[in-house]
Amino acid sequence: MNMAYKRFILWLLVILWMGIIFFLSAQTAAESSGLSGQTIRTLIPIFKPEFIDMSQAQQNEIVANLQYIVRNIAHILIYFILGILCMCALISYELKLKVKVFTALVICTVYAATDELHQLFVECRGFQFSDIFLDFCGALLGVLVVAGMHWMRGRKGKASQISMVVLHEADVKGKGDGEGVI
Fold first, then answer.
1. Nearest CA to 14 among 88, 75, 72, 64?
2. What is the mean pLDDT of residues 104-121?
3. Residue 131 to residues 29, 78, 126: CA-CA distances in angstroms?
4. How would you class 117 by CB atoms within 10 Å of its CB: exposed for 0-12, middle for 13-18, buried for 19 or more?
5. Residue ranges in the chain assigned as alpha helix (H)
6. Are 104 and 90 a contacting pair, CB within 8 Å?
7. Which sequence spans correspond to the domains of the chain?
8. How does pLDDT run across 35-56, given as a tens digit for each residue?
C-alpha cells in the first residue's frame, strides 16, 4: 500500500472520529444525559451485580451519582482516541517526533475548543473550559502512547543495529573463529 493512500485513510479516520464527536456534542442535554445513564445502567452490573436486584429508586440514585464521573471519563476516552488517530496520521510524515506530538495536541485541543463553541448552540448545553482541559488530557495520553511506541520502535531498531556492529567487530577481532563473539 503506498504512503499517500495510507495517509488518506489515516486522516479519513481522524475526520470520521471528529464527526462522531460532533454528533455526540449536537445532542441536547437531555439526550446526552440519557446516553450517559444508559451506559451506566449497562456497565454497573459488571462491577456491582446486586444493582439488578435494587429498587428503581436506588438504581436511579446510583446512576445520578455516577453521571458526573462517567461524563468526565467519556471526555477523556473520546479525546484519547482522537489523540491516537491524529498521532498515527502524523507519524507517517518526515518530521521530528516533538513536532508531531505538538501538532497532534494542537489539532485535538483546537477541535475540543470548537466543539465547546458548537455546544453553545445546542439546547441546554454550554461552553466549559473544564471540558477542554479533560479533552486535552485525553488527547495527551493518546498522543503519548503512540509517540512512546514510535520512540521505542526506533530505539529497538538502533539497539539492534549497534548490536550487529559490535558482534561484527568482535567476530573480526577473533578472526571468524567465534572467540571474539560476546
1. 88
2. 96
3. 15, 12, 10
4. exposed
5. 3-25, 29-47, 56-91, 97-119, 129-173
6. yes
7. 3-173
8. 999 999 999 999 999 999 999 9
